[in-house]
Amino acid sequence: MVLEDSEYDSVFDIEVIEDNVETPFGKVHCIMRGTPKGNRPILLTYHDIGLNHKTCFNPLFNHEDMHEITRHFAVCHIDAPGQQEGASTLATGFTYPSMDQLSETVTLVLKHFGVKSVIGLAIGAGAYVLARFALNHPDMVEGLVLININAQAEGWMDWAAHKITGWAHALPDMVISHLFGKEEIHNNHDLIGTFRHHITNDMNQANLQQFVKSYNSRRDLEVERPVPGGNVNVRTLKCPALLVVGDSSPAVDAVVDCNSRLNPTKTTLLKMADCGGLPQVDQPAKLIEAIKYFIQGMGYMSSASMTRLVRSRTASGSSISSLDGNRSRSHSNRSRSHTAEEQRGRSHTDVSMESASHSSVDNTTKSNALSC
């Protein structure tokens, strides 16, 4: 397997801006592809530990099916401090930002580019950063696609395991065990070899170690599932969220736990069959299709073609259909009339290869679980 340089910017004649944004927590390297369109959000990506925006998202954005999405939205890729390609070692005495502080750098990046709102796409550590950003700035986030998110702080058992593992294994091995499940590590030698080579040779090891330490020191997101009739000010994501995890990912339990803590009327859990720790690398076409449905449920891209996923006749539909109706902002400057075309666009969000509905804590509100 070869991690190719990004080519999707050459498919269309779009502007590409590469910049280092100054923040109180260090310089943040970012790439803006395309021009933000009026009040339409941009797609904002954030990578996991051991990766940067290229190695994390190139397989997804280079895929031909993704071009239909990038035609409609500008894309901003953020690299955590010191994680970009060719990064020099961070200055001696530099205090690496906490995960909370990293989420605040997102605000400054968006201000730098004059962006008002985003649809986030992130994985692992990046998913935590964008979720934290959405909790603190709900007016700036219209939707989130979160892969392998862990909303909990690292427990003392995890901390001890990392310490013991660190005695016997190098940093690249620790990162590999975070990104991939045991089955992949044992069976997919080409994939693991490619990423191990990247982590070892392309990432600045000192900088990476600081990013890993920051992620392992994260706090709980402290999100809580709203209960009908309960506290209306409960801390939770206000925007639609699609949680994604491969069925052999080491993050399965963490993602399922996060799903149980979020609003079931705005959250969908997508568990991808025969998929490992990096769905955007392992099954990019399926993931892109799910992202298309998700964006359609928010009222965008109603004419996008759908080819791989089929609409389920058994899913409740109430949760995903409500993604559009429960958006935190009215977007009065964009028509929301209930035309037949819009209704068709909404129905596209009620999809799966095998779809099941689960009761929430009070057995009255449905949450959605998809598998493909």
Q: Which features would summarize this protein structure in a list?
A:
single chain, 372 residues, alpha/beta, Rossmann fold, ten-stranded mixed β-sheet, 14 helices, 10 strands
Question: How does the helix and strand content classify structurally?
Answer: alpha/beta
Helix count equals: 14
Q: In CATH terms, what is the architecture?
A: 3-Layer(aba) Sandwich
What is the typical, i.e. mean, pLDDT? 81
Poorly predicted residue ranges: 310-366
What is the helical fraction, as a range of percent? Answer: 25-40%
* Biggest sheet details: 10 strands, mixed
Number of strands: 10
Q: How are the strands of the biggest sheet laid out side by side?
A: 1-2-4-3-5-6-7-8-10-9
The CATH superfamily bears the name Alpha/Beta hydrolase fold, catalytic domain
Count of the domains: 1
Oligomer: single chain
Shape: globular
Structure, described:
- This protein has 372 residues and is an alpha/beta fold.
- It has one domain (16-298): Alpha/Beta hydrolase fold, catalytic domain (Rossmann fold, 3-Layer(aba) Sandwich).
- Helices cover 37% and strands 17% of the residues.
- It has 14 helices and ten strands.
- Strands 1-2-4-3-5-6-7-8-10-9 form a ten-stranded mixed beta sheet, with helices on both faces.
- A hairpin with a 2-residue loop joins strand 1 and strand 2.
- The radius of gyration is 20 Å and the shape is globular.
- It starts with 15 loop residues before the first strand and ends with a strand.
